[in-house]
Amino acid sequence: MRALPTLxxxxxxxxxxxxxxxxxxxxxxxxNRAWLSPWEATTPLIRPDSFDQKSSIRGLLQAAKQGxxxxxxxxxxxxxxxxxxxxxxxxxxxxxATLGYWVVEKVAGRGITPVAVALxxxxxxxxxxxxxxxxxxxxxxxxxxxxxxKLGFRYEGFxxxxxHIDGKWAxxxxxxxVVEEVPSGVLTRYEKGAVPSGVAxxxxxxxxxxxxxxxxxxx
Length: 219
Ligand SMILES: CC(C)(COP(=O)(O)OP(=O)(O)OC[C@H]1O[C@@H](n2cnc3c(N)ncnc32)[C@H](O)[C@@H]1OP(=O)(O)O)[C@@H](O)C(=O)NCCC(=O)NCCS
Fold this sequence. Notes:
alpha+beta; Aminopeptidase; about 30% helix; globular; binds coenzyme A
């Protein structure tokens, strides 16, 4: 992924992250610590404060250069209000990727994230030829579960201790879309109100699993 795109919508502009976003990113993350930290991906054995935003952005840009990531920021009223990162982009017989996102608390509830996810997914499906997009969400994250429900991501399953979040391995519900499900695009389907209902529904058995975490010693 050489040049990062700019994807425009009246609600949000989704554009490639730049090194000079470091200050705005630091401020957004700092001002929204309590809002974001329960959902923030962490790295085992590394303290979250032990890297600065510039080196974090450098890492993202390096991954983008290698073609394995699409690191984007969300701009609303000329202000950086969130981040959308597509990672683990693989081509060939898998042609799949995984997507994560956040917005600052003051813009939550305006439908910015569903539009941003739709724009990025459409870009990767129709401009870059990806076949599948995945989003994995902690069972407690009702707001994020609404995002995939609104967009009609299909529930795929429950993964135990799948991603390291806020300092510990956390169970996740995973959802995906393949391009054949959205021939007219994710955004068009969403904006037309044509998202099929029920595809993101989590079976009761998986809720039972989520409510009963594995009792293993922490690591
Ligand atoms: C999850 C998140 C990205 C959703 O973004 P968003 O732009 O607010 O998305 P939406 O506007 O579509 O709102 C989604 C749901 O959030 C809930 N919501 C709305 N306003 C809210 C607020 N002020 N506070 C908390 N939740 C709110 C509602 O249930 C809403 O669904 P609804 O539109 O059917 O009422 C955002 O809440 C966030 O950044 N949370 C913290 C980080 C995070 O959870 N990242 C995702 C990890 S998987």
